[in-house]
Amino acid sequence: KEKPVQSTEFSSTIEIPDYVVKYMPMVSMDQRQSYKNDFNAEYDEYRLLHARVENITRRFTQLDAKCRKLAPGTKEYQKVQEEVLKEYKKMKQHSPNYHEEKQRCEYLHNKLAHIKRLIADFDQRRAQAW
């Protein structure tokens, strides 16, 4: 998980994700392979979570767009509001852990992007060394 780091200048807490500490710039091909293995181990989970979260988000975005085209207080507006409520209840029933899944998806997205960037940097340094 993420560990808080107390800043001396500010009273706020700055969150440094655990993967920033765990995955430092690479120095060897073995390390590169280890990072790649870690990336591959979590990529499928990320893709599944992303697809689920994206479907739910897309549906609410569509309903929101519908709402914005209608004048508040009209029958059509009320109908869309009821549809939003119905969708929300359905989402809570089928995906009770939606917020945790969304947070996990965002965490994995950032972690995998970090690992991918480190691999690309390592590969670029190796290519320049040739």
Automatic annotation (TrEMBL):
GO terms for biological process: positive regulation of transcription elongation by RNA polymerase II; snRNA transcription by RNA polymerase II. It comes from Perca flavescens (American yellow perch). This is Elongation factor RNA polymerase II 2. GO terms for cellular component: transcription elongation factor complex. Pfam families: Occludin_ELL. Signal peptide: none annotated. InterPro entries: ELL/occludin, Occludin_ELL. Residues 17-127 form the OCEL domain. One of its GO terms (molecular function) is cis-regulatory region sequence-specific DNA binding. It comes from the Eukaryota. PANTHER family: OCCLUDIN AND RNA POLYMERASE II ELONGATION FACTOR ELL, RNA POLYMERASE II ELONGATION FACTOR ELL2. Belongs to the ELL/occludin family. The gene is Polr2b. Keywords: Elongation factor, Protein biosynthesis.
